Prior knowledge:
Number of strands: 6
Order of helices and strands: HHEEHHHEHEEHHHHE
CATH topology of the largest domain: Cytochrome Bc1 Complex, Chain D, domain 2
Strand content: 5-15%
CATH superfamily of the largest domain: Cytochrome c-like domain
Shape: elongated
Number of helices: 10
Strand order of the largest sheet: 1-2
Structural class: mainly alpha
Helix content: 40-55%
Amino acid sequence: xxxxxxxxxxxxxxxxxxxxxxxxxxxxxxxxxxxxxxxxxxxxxxxxxxxxxxxxxxxxxxxxxxxxxxxxxxxxxxxxxxxxxxxxxxxxxxxxxxxxxxxxxxxxxxxxxxxxxxxxxxxxxxxxxxxxxxxxxxxxxxxxxxxxxxxxxxxxxxxxxxxxxxxxxxxxxxxxxxxxxxxxxxxxxxxxxxxxxxxxxxxxxxxxxxxxxxxxxxxxxxxxxxxxxxx
Length: 231
């Protein structure tokens, strides 16, 4: 059993060692921040996007880098998860992207402001956060359906899955797209993707910001979603 003098010495030495370790780790962390955050890539657009993010109180609903509200989706990796096209469409008109589903306020951002917010979120996405946030585990593809198309188009993974599910993963706002190739012909899919309201007036699906190449890619992919059972 330690004497009073020995216990005091143990306490003082232990406190000093732990304090030095804490200071050393803090200094090391601050030295790593510029490289891990890619501070050199903070452009004027990124800075304006950050100011707009703060001024609009986006963190009142969204979480970014572990801080903020939990009412709306976490946005630390939204740039790679949804892509710039989806972000732009969402910022232009949230209600059109999720009719009757979303409560996000329309801030009526200008195109320049949207560009700045996209630049800010792209910079956030590029940070090295040591694995944070954890990547979600998504459901695997349905074993009953074979897609002869080699892989999902990027635009499908970034925009379409926000509302539609396929293979058991995705949104539930719109109908699931498994076997959609059995129900709809390629020419119909092409017209639908270009202007849904022209095909079906009053439809809840918005007119998405898709290029001709993206429409063609989606038509090919969706046309191959058929009831082909694997041998």
